[in-house]
Amino acid sequence: MKDGMRGLSRRKMLAALAVSSISGVAMGSVFNERDAVSGMSSRAKNKLVTIDAKPEPIAIQTAKTAVIVVDMQNDFGTKGGMFDLAGIDISMIQKAVNPTARVLDAARENGLKIIYLKMGYHPDLSDLGTADSVNRRRHLQFMHVGKAVRAPDGTEGRILVRDTWNTDIVAALKPQDGDVVIYKTRFSGFYETELHNILTGLGIKHLIITGCTTSVCVDSTIRDAMFRDYHPILLADCTGEPIGYGLPRSNHEASLLTIQVLLGWVSSSGELIKALGTT
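Above: the chain's sequence. Below: its structure in token form.
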């Protein structure tokens, strides 16, 4: 493989990396030579900016930065989705939608790559885990993964099953041409996906993290990012956590503290947008 890659131009190398990663990318998403060129054009817009964050400000190069949107899909953040049907309060997730939308607008204006992660399983649930796995047992017991439901738009849906309304990104944050969409089957976006390969192929170092939920999939993805020497920067107002919501000390707040002390940085949508020089 290495011998074959030596003679390729940078543009073709990126395209080759994209082709090799297609198995981990959602059907309908596009990550091919056009995306590689898009990634290269973003480098032409490269600038060094400093984001005010905790525990200290962090300087990023925009050409080496991607925005990660974790699990902002209907099953978690929309009425009629899995959380809502289970009686779970989703107001804190819905509250994160507008600031996340502003971040995505600013990111696109500045040429940052945008990557969506979606929790979703094959229709036969073959990727849910072995019969005795915690992932399979918890998802079937508490979340009723695979259950057929009627989606609010009238279509037949299935809880956390790929290519249904349930795993579509919420309406206000829909992916656009050139964005990458990756299905995942565990809490971390890095577990058995092509996320790391895609980020490496694009030369990404800094990860702007948004999404839900703070102490589960967001936290898991940030931990795996830190273990791989990325610089994860969580935007606190662009994430939400139902577990412990309303308690004197919530899981959301505990995760923010852990992240800013040990795993990366914590900032806000306003600070990122200000640093990028957009309004």
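The mean pLDDT is 87.
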